[in-house]
Amino acid sequence: MSVEVHTLIEGPPDAPVVVMTHSLGVALDMWQPQAAVLARSFRVVRYDLRGHGRSPVPPGPYEIGDLGGDLVALLDRLGVARAHLCGLSLGGMVSLWVAAHHPQRVARLVVCCTSAVLGPPELWIERAAAVRAGGTLAVADAILARWFTPGWRARHPERLAALRATIAATPAEGYAACCGAIQRMDLRADLPGIRAPTLAVAATEDPSTPPEHLRRIVERIRGARLALVDQAAHLANLEQPERVSELILAHLRDDDAPISI
Question: Contact at 8 Å (CB) between 45 and 21?
């Protein structure tokens, strides 16, 4: 059963809609740099995934289809027949699921620093157990070390502290249940069914979903393209906000974006 997620909507009311879905352990604020750019010409819908931010925390287990169902229910609630989707990491997995299972609802698709299958399962089982035992703060430092390059972390201690606080504020059960959804997820067979023009954005220094994960997605979606973002780790949209915003905007506008493979 879907839940009514917390939502923030910006941009011209009559503009094309783009829905932005965030990573595990953060909230809709993650997309702020890109939303500020996109809202000039798009109706930007950001929301907190179930178990995150100000959205409800239903009891687990969760599956990727449950999180995707929340997104489809959000479109229904807003009266949006068809939207662009943009997701990073877990948000990318949710966006891929919706594009595959509800292709008529998706105009164009951007997935960043994500994967169609992300093992090993033991990693997610152990992380969920650690969070249930000690709260999300127990894993915050290890997560931040994978989200950003060492240089970025050294230059931005205040932003790092704010993100650490965001992770710590994420409900333990919501986080752990989403770990379970990732553990059991395998979207590889779904990808060929995606018909939306797709851009996959990979970060060259991402230890969580290295570029080969995005290449495998592109290989299974007809006409999909790959973009590489240099000097960035997993949350590339925060480490290289201008470059990621440029790529997303060009793809949604169907422009010839500067893309490297």
Answer: no
Instruction: Label residues 89-113 b or e (16+ Cβ within 10 Å = b).
Output: bbbbbbbbbbbbbeeebbbbbbbbb
Residues 6 or more apart in contact with residue 250 via CB below 8 angstroms: 256, 257, 258
Amino acid present at 217: I
Task: Say if residues 235 and 148 touch (Cβ distance below 8 Å).
Answer: yes
Taking the chain, what is the end-to-end CA distance rounded to the nearest angstrom? 40
Please tell me the pTM assigned to this model.
0.96
Nearest residue to 50 (alpha-carbon basis) of 34, 17, 27, 18: 27
Handedness of CA 241, 34, 250, 114 (dihedral sign): positive
Q: Region 166-182: what's the mean pLDDT?
A: 98
8 Å CB contact between 95 and 70: no
Long-range contact set of residues 147-154: C-beta below 8 Å, sequence gap at least 24:
147/208, 147/233, 147/234, 147/235, 147/238, 148/233, 148/234, 148/235, 148/238, 148/239, 149/205, 149/231, 149/232, 149/233, 149/239, 151/231, 152/233, 152/239
Residue recorded with tokens 């979606």: 221
pLDDT above 60 (res 179): yes
Q: How high is the pLDDT of residue 255? A: 60
Give me the percent of the chain exceeding a pLDDT of 90: 97
> Six-digit token pair at 186?
């395998």
Q: Which of 22, 13, 34, 32 is nearest to 250 (CA)?
A: 34
25 with 16: CB under 8 angstroms? Answer: no
Q: How far apart are CA 217 and CA 248, in angstroms?
A: 17
d(CA 261, CA 47): 31
